[in-house]
Amino acid sequence: MAGNRGKTTTRLNLRSGPGTEHLLLRVLDPGTPLTILENTGEWLRVGTDGQEGFVHERFVAQETQAVPVGLASTELADPFSDVAMAPPDDQLIRLGGRATSGERLVAATWNKAGNLLCALAGYLKFDPGAAVAVFCTESGGKGFGRDGRMIIRFENHHFFRNWGKTHREVFDAHFRFDSRKAWTGHLWRESEVAQFEDVHKDQNGEWRTFEFARTLDETAAKLSISMGGPQILGSNYADAGFESVHQMFDAFSVSEKRQFIAFFDFLQGTETHPRKVLALQKMDFARFAELYNGTGKAAEYSARISGMYETFRRLRPTTAAAV
User: Fold this and answer.
1) Backbone angles phi and psi of 288, in degrees to 5
2) Side-chain half-sphere of 323: how many Cα atoms within 13 Å?
3) Structural domain boundaries of the chain?
4) Are strands 187-188 and 175-176 parallel, antiparallel or unpaired?
5) Closest by alpha carbon to 56, among 11, 97, 87, 93?
6) Please, are residues 107 and 308 in contact by the beta-carbon 8 Å criterion?
7) Which DSSP letter does residue 144 get?
8) What is the three-class DSSP state of 255?
9) CB of 80 closer than 8 Å to CB of 116
10) Dist. CA 124–CA 3, nearest whole Å
11) Which of 26, 44, 195, 300 has the most CB atoms in a 10 Å sphere around its CB?
12) 164 or 267, which is more confident
């Protein structure tokens, strides 16, 4: 650790000791270079401009945490194209007859894509078990339903933002959401004389709502769905490595492997110290949930991710490197 370097990610207090009860020495600007002298847990002893002090490690991007520049895959270069999804037979999770639903979900996700997840997580320097936990939480570990269609979630409030606010009369005739908690109360109806129904009751409901929205505006509808195993919102297509939401939709519709790779592209973006990756490197699932799902349901998602991770670690206390 000694001699490792880093930089502050926000305005940060430099204190005389490892805790908020210690004297404030100065306030460091974002991007201030630091030499990390000692790691005492949540606090780092650092040097900067000839002065030593302590800062909270959550707000420091360390050089050892930096990830490669550039997305994990593009149309022209995909270093993971030849990496098998499933782990070798001797690394599979084998369950007994009394396995819980959570254990079955974790095992199915790992046995399907554990080798690829190890390779991708190693690329971004975090525990592959965290990736397993996120996938299990977001979509039940599945990219496709039994009918072969991609798993989606239609977000009424995003469709309002992408289309409905400029077509208010038509939107209000067919869609509803809670204005105070926009991610809740999602209802829809195809006909103006029909009863409103829950969008999220099952995948058939999600797809019926989405297909109807497509008749109103194809692009806006795709921008307003969370797609596949990682449940990446269509409006984040560029961060997931795609040139358009249509390209993302087409890729996610045919390849679960492409969904997995896009998840890691989405985490990374174009930064060397992306915040979502840093959160997973530190196993800070609360912070990750805030960044990935928003603050509205962060506590719920954080608890679920943590639970899935602990289940994975119980089933696979050690995880071999990708082959």
Assistant:
1) -60, -45
2) 8
3) 4-65, 89-148+235-315, 152-227
4) antiparallel
5) 11
6) no
7) B
8) coil
9) yes
10) 22
11) 44
12) 164
User: CB–CB of 210/216 below 8 Å?
Assistant: no
Q: Where are the beta strands (DSSP E) in 95-213?
A: 152-154, 175-176, 187-188, 197-198
Nearest residue to 100 (alpha-carbon basis) of 319, 302, 311, 301 = 311
User: Is the CB of residue 33 less than 8 Å from the CB of residue 5?
Assistant: yes
106 vs 140: which has the higher pLDDT: 106
- Express as a percent the part of the chain with pLDDT over 70: 91
Q: Which DSSP string do the residues of 256-267 spell out, in sequence order?
A: HHHHHHHHHHHH
| Tokens, residue 30 | 């974002």
Neighbours of 180 (CB within 10 A): 7
The percent of residues in the chain predicted with pLDDT above 90, rounded, is 55
What's the mean pLDDT when you consider all of the chain? 87
User: Tokens in use for 73?
Assistant: 């895959």
Point out which residues pair with 76 in neighbouring strands.
Answer: none
Among 73-77, 168-172, 214-218, 302-306, which is the least confidently predicted range? 73-77
Tokens of 157: 């409030």
Q: Can you tell me whether residue 56 is helix, strand or coil?
A: strand
Order of all β-strands in the sheet with 51-56: 24-28, 12-15, 51-56, 43-48, 33-39, 4-8, 60-62
The beta strand positions in the chain, using DSSP E, are: 4-8, 12-15, 24-28, 33-39, 43-48, 51-56, 60-62, 152-154, 175-176, 187-188, 197-198, 225-227, 232-233
- Determine whether domain 4-65 maps to CATH 2.30.30.40: yes
CA distance 121 to 280: 10
Whose tokens are 């679920």? That residue is 304
Amino acid letter at 77? A
Assign 219 to helix, strand or coil: helix
Structure tokens belonging to residue 180? 């105070």
